[in-house]
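Case study 2.
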Amino acid sequence: MEKSRFTASSYVFLALWIFLCAGLFVPFVNVISISNRKNPSQKIYSRDAAVNGFVISYTHSVNKGRVHDSYRVEKDGSLTLYETEFVSYGAGIPEPEETPGAVFTVTDTGYFISNLNRNMNELVMAVGVIAEHSIKINRDEENEIFLKEIFAPQTSLKIKNQKINLLEYINYIIKKRRT
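Prediction:
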């Protein structure tokens, strides 16, 4: 009788151990990953961006106005550019006719194109020398991160939604707090 109780508790302990290990090593934490394409170990994660969306802002090379592209994460993990806002209209700015269903609006602060719905698996971009590329989580001005503070100008970046394991996410948070 005593032997079978030990065996049952051993199975319970083993099941708990497997559950804990799976929780640490199986990817299930959804994040937006921004990584250096040539050195993928150089990256930042944002859990909030994966949940609330994010805005990539930059200074347009032709009209020198600030552009704000808003993205959300879809259920399938892809990214959707759903709206853009800019202060000055000119060359290189999207035309509403380019995207069926897009809505072009003039506001007090500039121009706004909504309902873009441009879907992609990942966004590839280079950190501009003059563009001042930044990312904001859920349009939060206080949490704007200028990408040149993390990545060297002209670094090619890959932005994508991905699942990482809990151990990797905890390690990232600990390293982030040290810097």
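The first helix runs from residue 2 to 25.
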